[in-house]
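Lab notebook, bench 4. The sequencing result for the construct came back, and we need a structural model before the next group meeting so we can plan mutations. Quick request posted to the team channel:

Model the 3D structure of this chain.
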Amino acid sequence: MTTIGIVSLGISVLATGLFAGLMFTLIFLMQLKWNRQTAAEYIVDIQPFLEVGKGNRVIGFLLFVGLLAPVPALLGATAVTQSAVNVLLLVGMVVFGLGALGVTVVLNLPTYHAIMSLDAQAPADNWGDLRRRFYQLNLTRFLASFSAFALFIAAMAIQL
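Done. Here's the predicted structure in C-alpha cell form:
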C-alpha cells in the first residue's frame, strides 16, 4: 500500500474511532441520565443538546471522512495480497456508510425533529417512545462505527 493509502487508512481509523466514542458517550453516559428523568426534565435537558448536535459540522465532518478516507487506500492497493485489506476496507465503508451516516441522515434527523417539537409543559404521550428510539438509533450508530473502526484497524494491522 502506498504512503497515501496508509495515511488515509489512519485517518479512517481516527474518524470512525472518534464517532464511535461520541456514540459511546451518548449511550453509556448520557442515556443513563436521560432514563432517570421525567418527561418534562428530559425535554428540557435534551432539546438544547439537540440544538447543538443537530447539523454540527464536526459530526458531519467525522461521518464523511470516516466514509471517504479509505478510498485512497483502496485505490492504492495493487498486489494480490491486498485482497484481505480491500475486503476489510470495503466492508468497513459499507457498515459505516449505512449504519452511521445512513442512520443519521435517514432515521436520526426525523427523530431529532420529533423530540424538538415536544413541549415540556404538556409532553406528548409518545415522548418515552422517542427517547427509546433515540437510544436505539445511537446504539446502532455506535455498533456500526465501532465495527468499522475495528475493521480499519484490522486492515492497518495487516499492513504492518
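The helical segments are 3-35, 39-53, 57-68, 70-76, 83-116, 127-159.
Will bring this to the meeting.
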